[in-house]
Amino acid sequence: MKILLAEDQAMVRGALAALLTLAGGFTITQASDGDEALTLLKQQHFDLLLTDIEMPGRTGLELAAWLKEQHSQTKVVVITTFGRAGYIKRAIEAGVGGFLLKDAPSETLVSSIQQVMAGKRVIDPELAMMAIGDIDPLNDKERRALRFASEGKSTAEIADMLFIAEGTVRNYLSEAIAKLNASNRIDAARIAKQKGWL
């Protein structure tokens, strides 16, 4: 089974690759961020994408959404430190097959991958219950603009990165601020991050 492992923390990535290699039956290709993972996904076929959510470049959820848009057969398992409701909800919408916390036992990872490859969905029941709660008010454009703003990027830089006009960026950010009842873009990013919407 060909697995693309996307994780920006080198030690965690190395540990996961070693664990899967020991389990046997897996060929592991590693990506150190979301953009590198996307390049690899465009170049070759993988049976499974095992990805973190928060990474430089594209997030794991953005990669999952891209695969869904491409009608790809590649299955997706998300591993994260954060069990935020917004993440789980977005993961389900993006067609993610498994959602695991990084502190789960190692045998859970291998059995979850096997279940997802067999067409099942594996989400911790407690996490699934959380996902039913809050509704994410942000659209993808607002989310991306807010994410770049939270990284300290200026309106001009965000406009360049998203290939849109500065006025459009200001509109996206002010919409996000209004939807989240925030006082400014930093406050909006903080709220969205806490909820798992960013």
Structure write-up:
With 198 residues, the protein is α/β, with parallel strands linked by helices. It has two domains: 2-131, Rossmann fold (3-Layer(aba) Sandwich), CATH 3.40.50.2300; 140-195, Winged helix-like DNA-binding domain superfamily/Winged helix DNA-binding domain (Arc Repressor Mutant, subunit A, Orthogonal Bundle). The chain is built from ten helices and six strands; from the N terminus they run βαβαβαβαβαβααααα. It has a six-stranded parallel sheet with strand order 2-1-3-4-5-6, with helices on both faces. Helix 4 (85-93) crosses helix 6 (125-131), helix 7 (140-150) crosses helix 9 and helix 8 packs across helix 9 (166-179). The longest helix has 14 residues, at 10-23. It is globular, with a radius of gyration of 17 Å. The model has no long low-confidence stretch (mean pLDDT 90).
- Please tell me the total number of domains: 2
Instruction: List segments where confidence is low: pLDDT < 50 over at least 5 consecutive residues.
Output: none
Distance between the termini: 31 Å
Overall, the morphology is globular
Mean pLDDT: 90
State the strand order across the main sheet: 2-1-3-4-5-6
Report the CATH superfamily of the largest domain.
Response regulator
**The level-1 CATH class of the largest domain:** Alpha Beta
The third-level CATH topology of the largest domain is Rossmann fold
Q: Given the helix and strand composition, which structural class is it?
A: alpha/beta
Over all CA atoms, what is the radius of gyration?
A: 17 Å
Put simply, the count of helices is 10
Order of helices and strands: EHEHEHEHEHEHHHHH
Largest beta sheet, briefly? 6 strands, parallel
Strand content: 5-15%
The level of helicity is 40-55%
Query: What is the correct CATH architecture of the largest domain?
Result: 3-Layer(aba) Sandwich
- Strands, count: 6
